[in-house]
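[09:14] KT: can someone run the structure on this one? pasting the chain below
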Amino acid sequence: MNQKHYSLDELGWKKHFKDQLEVENSTELIPARVTMTHKGHLVVSTGESEMLLKIAGKGIGSLNEQPTVGDWLLMDSKTMVPVKVLERTSLLQRMAPGQEIKLQPIAANIDTLFIVSSCNSEFNLNRIERYISLALEAGINFVLVLTKEDLTEEAQEYRRQAEHLFKSLQIVTVNGKDQQSVKCLQQWFKPGETIALLGSSGVGKTTLLNTINGTEKEKTGSIRLGDDKGRHTTTTRSLHVMESGTLLVDVPGIRELQLHDCHSGINRAFSEIVEAEEICRFSDCSHEREPGCAVREALENGTITERRLANYLKLKEEAQKNTSELAERAKRKSGKKKKYSRKWNK
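[09:31] RB: done, structure tokens below
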């Protein structure tokens, strides 16, 4: 963020968070918002000042949650050590990439999610459905932003394909390099509201962000991290205060978005399939050859497409598998704690 002062309201401080501070009933706690995460570090802002915090192996201090960009923390006014993560209005998270089974928060307290794709070979209906499921699970308003419309004559065809993904899906097509083109996004830019940009690498998120801000470079390069080489825009999650007063969260391009406990979001994203499943003859129907399968009937009459059904089943299986693995990991950790507890109590 720019090195200037902001009020808490300008940082997105709302009644939901203010009420939690009042419950704490302490004059020694002050709120601060996480404005950047980067390789084991956080940058937080109280509005008056910014601080760089290092995340230790087990987190920071006694925090009850792993903080992420957009979070509100309560800080000890004397030591400026964070003591609590305030309850969130929303949380975007995924399974962490790699071999370790754990959740990775992406961004918190988001009001609107811009799902960014592009009018080229990167456009992928299955991937967009993942983002829609994630947003629906988090209870976040979402908009599909199709970039690079200037590089193709088929922009409206991409839009037409996307219109069938969700009944009330809001879609805009833009040239991310043209300030006039991105003005259509202004309707979501309201003071104190937080918007996040999410999409794969190469879809033009950084270009879009720079055009929206009216800058050639992002306005958040003033914080140096450890080695004095500055931050790397492809790995840093950062929050920008725009001229409109909107708070914009930029997230690096996501190569892998594995869902976990996202059953409600998936069901809402694929409501026509869920409705057909509910009237299937068998509750455990596999939707392959069973007699009386309402899903197969919907496929035959065109209400459901083969692609949508395949992606729905894939996401459901993935979410169930990851949820089960997380639960098993938690169970093992709990068992180890009990074992060590018995050992030391002997």
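[09:33] KT: thanks! Residues 306-345 form the longest helix (40 residues).
[09:34] RB: yep, looked fine to me
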